[in-house]
Amino acid sequence: MAKTTTNFVCQECGYQTPKWMGKCPECLAWSSFAEETTRQQSASHKSKLSSEPSVLIPITDVQSIVENRLTTGIKEFDRVLGGGMVEGSLILIGGEPGIGKSTLTLQSMGHLARSGKTVLYVSGEESGSQIKLRAERLNALSENLLVCSEICLEDIIQWIKKIEPHVLVLDSVQTFYTSDLQSAPGSIGQVREVAFKIFQFIKQRGLPTLLIGHINKDGAIAGPKSLEHIVDTVVYFEGEQGHAYRALRATKNRFGPTPEIGVFQMEQNGLVPVENPSEWFLSERPENSSGSVVAATLEGSRTLLVEVQALVSTSSSIGMPRRMATGFDHNRMSLLIAIIEKRMEFQLQGEDIFLNLAGGIKITEPALDLAIVAAIAGSFRDKVIDPLAVLIGEVGLTGEVRSVMQLDARILEAKRLGFKKCIIPYSAKKIKKLPDKGIDFLFVKNLAELFEHLFE
Questions:
Q1: Whether residues 31 and 85 fall in one domain
Q2: 121 lies in the same domain as 251
Q3: Is 425 in contact with 405 (CB distance < 8 Å)?
Q4: What distance in Å separates the CA atoms of residue 358 and residue 374, rounded to the nearest whole number?
Q5: Phi then psi for 287, rounded to 5 degrees?
Q6: Which residue from 317, 308, 262 is spatially nearest to 285, judged by alpha carbons?
Q7: I need a labelling partner for 30 at 20 to 30 A (CA). Which of 169, 176, 398, 417 fits?
Q8: Tell me: the pLDDT tens digits for 53-74?
Q9: Is the pLDDT of residue 42 over 60?
Q10: d(CA 377, CA 383)
């Protein structure tokens, strides 16, 4: 007989305790414990499920895996996945509700279905008629695209065994449950158990699977980050609801590079891949405006040119100036402001400072430091920086300008888009293969040399 045990599980971090507690001792969250009932299998039943013992062999004798990738038909999606979906891989797609996860998934599955692959699309949130309405809008209709509205994992597995599809989609992980647990769908126990069972099942059959998950207010998929350790690939959808721009960013990939990024534009008929995102980000750049600077950033294997905008104005509140950053780390911006004040003696204590990366993109790379410092200083002094110049470099605490990786690829992208000058770290002089035709270089050691050139 199976034994039933009751535990209280924190819905924020997964901490378990046999009794209810008001405050979680692990993550310090209040009123986060929920009662969950677990059925433990008997020893005789466990012995039936146990597999043969493992065999120890030298790593040199292990047979290599041949990656047979299944392309989705959407180049930007395949780029993020490392060239397509690998057989037996579990891919987790996360993002805020309404950001475009189901749209991209249905578009790609429509391409696969029209190419002759059998796709099983299981939705726990929408009915078949609702899925068809979206499929008609996205031009994703095909007889090979099979839809099912089911939330019980055991029933879904029976459908998979009967149909034997080439690709499986589960939308979304918060809506499914397994009968082995008595807790409600969406709880931390159900999310973990569902993901782990699906992972074991598809690995045995070599079935590539897309698992869609919403993120909570803290930015974690389905609450705990532990779900990301179960899957093979984790990709996040980023973008603001008011912008047409969407970015698909890989944060974990066992079969490809990380972090890789794919850029899409949301239109009426779905998500359209953007092949030249740098041109798209700079298409509405204003002319002869202070506080606007172009920087070259690296996202995975892709080089992007983005516009950094800064606005410095006299604060109306005494002693509490506002400092806001959109698309860039607020703490990093505060650090750069402190460096400007200390090393360059700028009087920014009574100034409101606002920073924005145009287009709604989010970047954390330190190669943007030089452009951010120049944009803030340009807005403070109301000086227009050369619109055909690109700034690349990291700024240290003493005001020195440090080099960044793959500088040549960034310069080539700037040259391709028609920029005539690159302001880069002085240490880059040691690089012998810098492209020097069609673009001029200005090498700077510190912020003093940078400001001397920009504001002389």
A1: no
A2: yes
A3: no
A4: 16
A5: -100, 140
A6: 308
A7: 176
A8: 667 889 888 877 667 889 999 9
A9: no
A10: 8
Q: What is the rounded distance in angstroms from the CA atom of residue 106 to the CA atom of residue 185?
A: 23
Domain annotation covers residue 58: no
> What distance in Å separates the CA atoms of residue 379 and residue 359, rounded to the nearest whole number?
20
pLDDT in tens, 415-440: 999 999 999 999 998 887 787 788 99
| Alpha-carbon span 427 to 443, nearest angstrom | 8
Q: Is residue 63 part of a domain?
A: no
Same domain, 255 and 293: no
Distance separating alpha carbons of residues 296 and 417, to the nearest angstrom: 11
Q: Is 214 helix (H, G, I), strand (E, B) or coil?
A: strand
238 and 26 Cβ atoms separated by less than 8 Å = no
Residues 218, 255 within the same domain: yes
- Residue-wise pLDDT for 289-347, tens only, equals 999 999 999 987 889 999 999 999 998 877 789 999 999 999 999 999 999 999 999 99
Asked if residue 33 belongs to a domain, the reply is yes
Return the DSSP state at 431.
Answer: -
- 235 and 100 share a domain? yes
Give the length of the chain: 456
> Which amino acid appears at position 168 of this protein?
L
What average pLDDT does range 340-357 have in this prediction? Answer: 94
Same domain membership, residue 36 and residue 182: no
- The answer to whether 323 and 353 have CB atoms below 8 angstroms apart is yes
| CATH code of the domain in which 450 resides | 3.30.230.10
Within 13 Å, how many C-alpha atoms sit on residue 318's CB side? 0
Query: Which pLDDT belongs to residue 207?
Result: 95
252 falls within a domain: yes
- Position 50 scores a pLDDT of 44
Helix 447-454, helix 330-344: angle, nearest 10 = 80
Q: Is 241 helix (H, G, I), strand (E, B) or coil?
A: coil
Range of the domain at 92: 69-275
| Greatest distance between any 2 Cα atoms in the chain | 84
Are 271 and 331 in a shared domain?
no
* Pair (309, 425) in one structural domain: yes
Q: How far is the C-alpha of 253 from the C-alpha of 174, rounded, in Å?
A: 22
Residue for token digits 């993002």?
A: 95
